From TrEMBL, chains A, B:
Keywords: Hydrolase, Metal-binding, Protease. It holds the Pfam family M20_dimer. One of its GO terms (molecular function) is metal ion binding. Residues 211-361 form the Peptidase M20 dimerisation domain. It comes from the Bacteria. This is Acetylornithine deacetylase/succinyl-diaminopimelate desuccinylase-like protein. InterPro entries: Cyt/Met_Dipeptidase, Peptidase_M20, Peptidase_M20_dimer. NCBIfam families: PRK07907.1, PRK08201.1, PRK09104.1. The lineage of its organism: Bacteria, Pseudomonadati, Pseudomonadota, Alphaproteobacteria, Hyphomicrobiales. One of its GO terms (biological process) is proteolysis. PANTHER family: BETA-ALA-HIS DIPEPTIDASE, SUCCINYL-DIAMINOPIMELATE DESUCCINYLASE. The keyword Methyltransferase does not apply.
Length: 462, 462
């Protein structure tokens, strides 16, 4: 039986050196989507391998077509202890537009915000380096205090989560036995609020496509050709505008196949959280709910599918004006999926829709991105209940079981390829500005996050 | 009475040195819309002032808020000779995308295309440095051969034509007396084809607006906020898609006020040119006429108004994918005007339309560009008839009077501010790729262009 209080005190005493380690990792600009940072991604992987070894893990960085996947194991645990797989990612999002950052994205700092609140600044501080380090530092407390971990633990860190995890499915096919465990612990999600920890029981899936439309064989002068030549930006605008009807519903045929209304009892739990559209949108400077009519902002982001244009480009976009008719225009479009929506079918229907809107003399190229179904956990799974209790012991308010709007494709892969459920626990906050300038992580998230994992491991070991 | 043959021979003999001068000017990257090239615009202006002085003109580069406007005069002409103003512009379009150029845009070359055809490569070779130099070299032949010019000539070169001529209206208000003449000669248009010179009797006007839509106060993660938060790219796509109806007509209220159908006799002349939609569009790799249904490509570009999106940008547009909901999205939209369409009214109606499509919690900023009405010359003006005869003498086929899809705002300003008509003669070809990579000017356009101006000046002097 572990001495929980001694473990928690050890984590408290270790906090300064735990922060030093986090900062070392945050200083590595491991932007996975941009080939210019390939070496940095490798450096982040190597740093983690070294760190895992100091924690007594056998750790290897496996080569992939993209960035390395780290697998680490520790068998040194009590007889009959459950076997868990901890998953995190060491890659981060791009940092543009750089001019909107108050501090250097890759030179992390601790900032005192007053009233006892401190934050850790920098790209990846929350998503996902800060989060994954909470688990490693919990392992460290166990090692230092008790000499062994309370569970059989395998760790997998990937470096392509922010760019759609292209190498992961093949890796799991080939090396699934290396990482198969009783269930997975995934630390890439958030708290409900500053005082209330959360376990995510649903995750939206994702399918993305880049659409490139080509009209004329060159950029044209809009005076000479305007009115007679096809303008690919017009065609693209028509396509994008036609994706939603006047009620905000996605118009693709069959899009809502497999989408079920949220059960009334689940909706009641969510309503009890007291969230309002005003507060949800007010936090980001908005007030009018967009998207499907008749749903709360919470339900729209947790339980409804979407079509979103993530980027659009065409023609002259620099300073000043250029009266050009572009040869090409492009858009990056993604769909968030729920329930049993089929990513392959949705991609197929989207492409057919785009083709149907295309004049005969224009052409379109597609570049796929991602493709993962939604997932839905059993609300009554024992590991979920144990974790819920452990989190409730650490934080001021009891842990809640919620939905998640984001996609973590790996969780779908764990389920479909390895038959493994995932416990989704994380300590991010909505205002962490992940994927945006001025990303931060609360010092409280980091510190109590470490303590939370100690409590969860302790509970799972029983 | 001038010895026309001696003048033409002089121009022929001068051709090599005329090309040297043109190349000097083409080497100056005078991109007016990009502030990084401000010094180069000034350099091009200074080069022209020096050149004009060697041709016996009194020449001055007048400072403006933007790039200099050059005014040059030569009073040394026969008694009672008409007074003409020659207009051109020394600025050029940006050169992006640079990777599509076969040769350096600012290192002009002569390329032998076989069968006696040669071209001059480089940005500005056609639009408008090559064109304006045809007139200067015609003046040179007169100076060298006869010691004086056959007409009273004022020359005005501006450096902001490619960025909407922002300084020109104020300059004309203040210094209109410096440039007022009996009529203007404007060399910024094209031939009908390689053998048929053309005089443009109609020019479309232009009004442009940049639209910047702001939704949330930051870029958002599309997982956390997708489905509930307004996406400015969706709003923009709706706005742009709604600009045209299913028949390709512009939907703005009152847009067609002042637009008249082309008279049947004019349409017959145009039909006699033998142009087909297939050929017109085939040249740029297209085959399906876009825009208003029921009009030929020629009529669509010469006599019908348009709404065109010249650029669109929003969200993540780099390599890879970023599942972001952008805070902002923007588009550059321009309208080509005909007949008596009112630029101010159209801008106003466009902005009202955009506002009407905007959710209450989003905002829009507008940045105006240009704003010039269409112009329409008298088909029977004497100067037009004389020029038509002179051009017909130089080229294999008789000169035709056509419409022009492009806008030359200065021609509208000459008419509205100085009561001065303009003779629009130029030697560009449709495949000159002006405003695009690999701009070129035919050696034939340059050489016979010089000869054409000699003939036109000779005819106008009679």
């Amino acid at each position: 039986m572990s001495d929980l209080n001694a473990l928690l005190k050890r984590a408290d005493d270790n906090l300064p050196s735990s922060l030093d380690k986090l900062f070392d990792l945050l200083r590595i600009p491991s932007i996975s989507t941009d080939p210019a940072y390939k070496k940095d991604c490798t450096a982040a992987a190597n740093w983690l391998v070294d760190e895992l070894k100091t924690l007594g893990f056998m750790a290897t960085a496996h080569k992939t077509k993209g960035h390395p996947i780290i697998v680490a194991t520790s068998e040194n645990a009590p007889e009959n202890a459950p076997h868990v797989l901890f998953y995190g990612h060491y890659d981060v999002q791009p940092v543009d537009p750089l001019n909107l950052w108050d501090d250097e994205p890759f030179d992390p700092k601790i900032k005192d915000m007053g009233q006892g609140r401190k934050i850790i600044t920098g790209r990846g501080s929350s998503d996902d380096k800060g989060q994954l380090m909470t688990f490693l530092q919990a392992c460290r407390a166990y090692r230092e205090e008790e000499g062994e971990l309370p569970l059989k633990i395998t760790i997998m860190f990937e470096g392509e989560e922010e760019s759609g995890s292209p190498s992961l499915p093949a890796f799991l096919e080939e090396h699934g036995d290396l990482v198969k465990a009783d269930f997975a612990l995934v630390c890439d999600t958030g708290m409900w609020d500053r005082e209330t920890p959360a376990i995510a029981a649903t995750l939206r899936g994702l399918v993305g496509d880049e659409v490139v439309i080509t009209a004329a064989d060159r950029d044209l002068h809009s005076g000479f050709f305007g009115g007679a030549a096809a303008n690919p930006i017009h065609i693209l605008a028509d396509i994008l505008a036609g994706l939603h009807d006047e009620n905000g519903r996605v118009t693709l045929p069959g899009f809502y196949d497999g989408v079920e209304e949220t059960p009334e009892d689940v909706k009641k739990t969510w309503e009890a959280l007291g969230e309002t559209d005003e507060r949800f949108l007010g936090e980001i400077g908005l007030s009018v709910p967009a998207g499907e009519k008749g749903y709360s902002a919470l339900e729209l982001t947790w339980a409804r599918p979407t079509a979103e244009v993530n980027g659009v480009a065409g023609g002259y976009t620099g300073d000043g004006f250029k009266t050009v008719i572009a040869a090409q225009a492009s858009a990056k479009v993604s769909f968030r999926l729920v329930g049993k929506q089929d990513p392959a079918k949705i991609r197929e229907n989207f492409r057919a829709y785009v083709q149907s809107k295309l004049p005969d003399d224009c052409k379109v190229d597609f570049h796929p991105h991602g493709g993962s179904p939604a997932i839905q956990l059993d609300y009554n799974a024992p590991f979920l209940k144990k974790a819920q209790g452990a989190l409730s012991d650490e934080w001021p308010k009891p842990a809640v079981v919620i939905g998640m709007g984001g996609s973590i494709p790996i969780v779908g892969d764990f389920q479909s390829k390895l038959g493994m459920d995932s416990l989704l626990v994380g300590f991010g906050l909505n205002d962490d500005r992940i994927h945006s300038p001025n990303e931060k992580y609360e010092m409280n998230s980091f510190h109590k996050g470490i303590r939370s994992w100690i409590r969860i491991m302790n509970a799972l070991a029983k």
